[in-house]
Write a structure and sequence with these properties.
Elements (H helix, E strand, L loop, with lengths): L12 H8 L4 E2 L1 E7 L2 E7 L2 E5 L4 E4 L8 H6 L2 E6 L5 H9 L9 E3 L5 E3 L4 E13 L2 E13 L6 E3 L2 E3 L6
Length: about 170
C-alpha cells in the first residue's frame, strides 16, 4: 500500500484534493432567484452550525461564475439530494439555469424548491465569510422539510449511494 505524505501548498493541490476526497459527503443543490429567474448550484460543502438559532453553512467556490449571485442572495433553499437524484446534481454542477426539464415549484418567497429531495432548508442569509478560494455562507433556517430515504454521496470524485439503514 502506497501512502502519500506532503505539505499542502500550490505544488500539491491535486494531492490535497485527493486526500480531502477520502471523506465522503452528502450532496446538496442550493437554489435562489436572480433577476426573477431560478438559479441552482451543486454543493457538497454543507454543515449544520447551530440548533438555536437554527443556522447552517455552505461554501461556494469563488471561481464559479455563480458565486457572486449566491454570495449576495438574501434567500435561498438548500436541497439534500436523494440517492436517485444524481442526474439533477450533475446538471446543477454544470449549469445554474436550465430549469425547463427539472421538477420544481416556487416556494412561498419565490425561491425555487426542487421536488423529491431528501430534505430542504429554506434560509435567509445571515453572514458571508472569507474562506480562501471559497466563501462561507451562513444562513438561518426559516423552514425545513424531510422525508425517509437514502442520500446521494460524493467521494473521491464519484457519486454513489449509502449502504446502510435509513
Amino acid at each position: 500500500m502506497s501512502v502519500s505524505s506532503f505539505k499542502p501548498g500550490p505544488e500539491t493541490i491535486r494531492a490535497f484534493r485527493d486526500a480531502l476526497g477520502c471523506y465522503g459527503t452528502g450532496v446538496t443543490v442550493v437554489t435562489t432567484l436572480h433577476e426573477d429567474q431560478p438559479l441552482g448550484m451543486t454543493v457538497n460543502s454543507f454543515a449544520s452550525v447551530s440548533l438555536d438559532p437554527p443556522l447552517v453553512l455552505w461554501c461556494p467556490a469563488k471561481a464559479s461564475a455563480r458565486h457572486p449571485v449566491f454570495a449576495a442572495a438574501p434567500r435561498y433553499a438548500i436541497h439534500v439530494m436523494g440517492e436517485t437524484q444524481q442526474e439533477l446534481a450533475v446538471h446543477f454542477s454544470r449549469t445554474g439555469n436550465g430549469f425547463d426539464h427539472v421538477n420544481w415549484h416556487a416556494g412561498q418567497d419565490g425561491v425555487p424548491h426542487l421536488d423529491g429531495c431528501l430534505a430542504r432548508f429554506d434560509c435567509v442569509a445571515r453572514a458571508v465569510h472569507d474562506g480562501g478560494d471559497h466563501s462561507i455562507v451562513v444562513g438561518e433556517v426559516l423552514h425545513a422539510t424531510h422525508r425517509p430515504g437514502l442520500g446521494l454521496m460524493f467521494k473521491r470524485g464519484q457519486y454513489g449511494g449509502f449502504a446502510g439503514l435509513e
